[in-house]
Amino acid sequence: MMAAAPLYCVCRQSYDVSRFMIECDICKDWFHGSCVQVEEHHAVDIDVYHCPNCDVQHGPGLMKTRINWHRHDYTEPDDGSRLVQAGTSVFVRELQNRPFPSAAEILVQMQGHQVTQKYLEKQGFSYPITVPQLGGLGLKLPPSSFSVRDVEEYVGGDKIVDVIDVARQADSKMKLREFVKYYYKPHRPKVLNVISLEFSDTKMAELVVVPDIAQKMSWVENYWPDDSFFPKPFVQKYCLMGVKDSYTDFHIDFGGTSVWYHVLWGEKIFYLIKPTQDNLALYEVWSSSPNQSEVFFGDKVDQCYKCVVPQGTTVLIPTGWIHAVLTSQDCMAFGGNFLHNLNIGMQLRCYEMEWRLKTPDLFKFPYFEAICWYVANNLLETLKELREDNCQPPVYLTDGVKALITALKNWLKREVTEQASEVPDHIRPNHLIKELTKEIRYLEEEQRGGSKPMKSQACGPCPLTRSTLDRARHHACRTARRLRHHHDHHHAPKTPSNLEILELHTRQVLKRLEVGPFEEVRALTHYPLPHSACVTHIVPILVCRQRPTSPTTEEEAIEGMLSMAGLLYPQRPEESSTECLAELSQRIQKNKNFMDNQSSGCNSNSSEAWGDQSPSQAASSPLCLDHSSGTDYQYSETSLSPPLHPSKRPAPNTPPISNQATKGKRPKKGMATAKQRLRKILKLSRNNHFLL
C-alpha cells in the first residue's frame, strides 16, 4: 500500500503548492501563512520563527535588523563596498534627482480621434503616442473618484494578486483585501506595487472598454478562433495600483506587445529607450548579468528619455520599447497589451530573446506560438486576396510574413527536442509555411519586374484585420472583380474581337466542365448570377436562334459555342448574320461600359447595386436585357435541373486564366486550347449532341 501523504500545519492538511508556508525553527513543522497570520511578504523579515505552539514555551520569534537602505538584503553590512540596487529607497531618491532628456523629442502627441488604424498603417507605430484627453479614443473607464476599495468591491477581496516588494524587487502573493488594508494604513512599512491584476473575468470588466485602436489591431481579437484548443489569452485589461516610490526596473513587455496606459489618478514617470539593434543587444546582456540590479540600464545606452504621465493622460508604447516606471505619487492606472501586424518582426525578436533568457512561462505572453500560427494562417488568405485583386501588400506586412516564416520554421525544428507544442490541430504547419513562402516569392517576382504592375495606393487601405462580416463582404466584391477581371485593365486595352471575347468566356465556363455532353448543357444553361450587393451584372452574351445561311469561320465558331451554352436571342428575319454579330458586339461593349461604371459600387447599399430588386430577387429572376428595341432577350431554359437557390450557390468561379501566366509556353500534352475546344463544340453541335 502507498504511504499516506504527510500532514502539516494546525489544520493538518497535506502540502499544497499554491499556498505559502513557513517552517517553525523549533519543531520543524510547516504552517500555512494564512493559518498562523503570517503574510508572504513579511516572511523575509523574520529571522527566527516560532509557531503558535512553540511560541508558548520558547517565546516569540525574532525579526531581522535593518543595517542598510541601499541593498535588497537590508541585513548586509554597510561598509560602502556594495553598490546601490534598483528599487531601494536610496535608488529611488537618486533616480528622482537624475537629469534626463525630455521625451518630448520622441513623443507623438495626438488627439484621440486621430489615433486610428489607418493612420498607424500609413505612418507606422514606431514612437510612443500620448493623448492628453480621454475623448475620441473609444476608451471607457470608471470616474476619477474610483478607489482601491472600489476595486476590491468589484473584483472580490479573496482574489489572489501578485504584489511586488519594491525594495527587494521580489514578487509575492496576497489576497486583494490584505493589499487594501495595507494601502490604507497611515504608516506603510513597505512599498508594495500591484501591476498584474488582470480583471477580464470579474465584474470590473464591465466598467472598462479598451481603446478602439487596441481592439481593432489586436491579434487576439482578430485571429483567435472561438473553438481553439488553447485557452484565449486575456491581457487587455489590467488594473495597476501603486503607492508612492513604487518602481519597476527596465523591461520589454512580454512577447514584444504594445501597451496602452491611462492614469486614472496620481502620476507615473516612464523612462523610455528606443529598441535599436544595439540597444536590444545591450538589454539582453544586461538582463542575463548577475549584477543586473546594480546597473542602471539607462546608463548603458545613448539616450534614455523621461516621460511624465499625469492624471487623465493616455500613453501608447510601441513594440519592443525598453522602459522603466516610477510611481511618483499614489496612483491608479489601467492598461493592456496587444500584438498586431505593424511590427511582427520586432515582436518575434522579443519572444526569441525571452526564450534565450529562459524567462518563466508565467512572465511570457500566453500561447504566443499558437497565436502566431493562427495569424500566419489568416495572413496567407490576406496575401492571396491581395494578389488576386492585383494589389500590392504594404511593406510592413510583407516583412512581417517573412519574419513569421523564419520563426515558424525554427519552432518546428525545436519541437524535435521539446515536448510541448503549440501548433493548432487544424493547421498543417509545413503546408502553411510552403504556401506563405510561395506568396512571398510571387511578390518578389513582381517587384523584380514581373508580368503586370500591381496597384499600391489605388487599392485603398488593405483590410488586414477584418471581422467575419467584413471578410464576407470583401469576398463578394472579390468575386465580382474576378468576373470582370479581363475587361477592367489599368491601361486602355486594345478593342477585342468578337471571337476573342467569346474565347475568354469559353475558358471561364468550360474550364469547370470536364463532364459529359448532357451535364455540360445543364451547367452552362444555369450559369448562376451572383447575389451579393457588391456584384455587378454579368456581361450577357447573345446568339441568333437561326443559323446564318452562309456563316463565316468566325461566325460559325461564335454561333456553335454559344448555342451549346444555351445563350440564345431571336433574330429578325430581315437581319443578316453580319448585322446580328454587329449588334452582339455593340451590346457586349454597352455592358462592358456598364460594368466599368459600376466598378466603384462595392461599398454601396443593395438597392443601389441592384436597382429596385433585392439581391435575392435579382439572383433568382431571369436576366432581362434591353427592351428598347422591342425584342425580349433572355437565357434559354434547356436545362432539366431546378434553379439554384441564392443561399445555396456553389463555390465562386475559378478566376480566369492569366494570359501572362501562359505567355510563351506550349500547352501541356492533352490540354486543348480555346480554339480546339471551339472546334469540338462545332463538331458536337453538327452531330446533334446538343439541343439548339
Automatic annotation (TrEMBL):
Annotated stretches, region: Disordered: 595-676
Coiled-coil positions: none
Principal subcellular localisation of the protein: nucleus
Domain PHD-type: 6-57
GO molecular function, one term: histone H3K9 demethylase activity
Named cofactor requirement(s): Fe(2+)
UniProt xrefs under Pfam families: JHD, JmjC, PHD
Keyword set, alphabetical order: Chromatin regulator, Dioxygenase, Iron, Metal-binding, Neurogenesis, Nucleus, Oxidoreductase, Transcription, Transcription regulation, Zinc, Zinc-finger
Gene Ontology biological process terms from the UniProt entry: brain development
Xref: PROSITE patterns: JMJC, ZF_PHD_1, ZF_PHD_2
Superkingdom to which the source organism belongs: Eukaryota
Family to which this protein belongs: Belongs to the JHDM1 histone demethylase family. JHDM1D subfamily.
Protein name: Lysine-specific demethylase 7A
